Amino acid sequence: MTHELLTSLRPLLTAEASAEAYASGTEAGDLEQAVWLRLLERLAADGPPPDPHRWLRSAVRTEARRTRRTARNERPYGTEPAGVAESAHEPERLALAAARRRALRDAVGRLPGRCPRLMEALLSPRDLTYREIAGELGISQGSLGPERSRCLGCLRRLLTPEVAAG
Q1: pLDDT at site 86
Q2: CA–CA separation, 106 and 100 (whole Å)
Q3: Among 61, 66, 52, CA closest to 7
Q4: pLDDT for res 21
């Protein structure tokens, strides 16, 4: 009976978890695992719920709310944890830094208009001055600041969903 119940609930759980995952800022698979755990605990303690489909929908929403609440209460470190300075060249940190740089470069490539060229110039290792950047892009130096501000706003909007999901 338990195996048939779990098999019949799998498609519903996958659909419900996928629907709730984005809003809760978590992965659908993590949500599914949490609900499976709750169901198995319930089966061991009280047996199957009277209406398994209704229970499952409610459990997915409850887990999504719990995840949102947890994410809202978590705070980043004010400073790096102890031991970070000596571990700056660990392969894991290097890989994460490279992934962040790739994500930034990909987002810059998706910007509208002149923004990709402007952001590339600002991110250039040559450390160009505003005068050099304006000359390279063929715009006045006075319009560079407002253009930069607009492009950074677009970049921020592009990266916000990626940051929130990560």
Answers
A1: 55
A2: 10
A3: 52
A4: 83
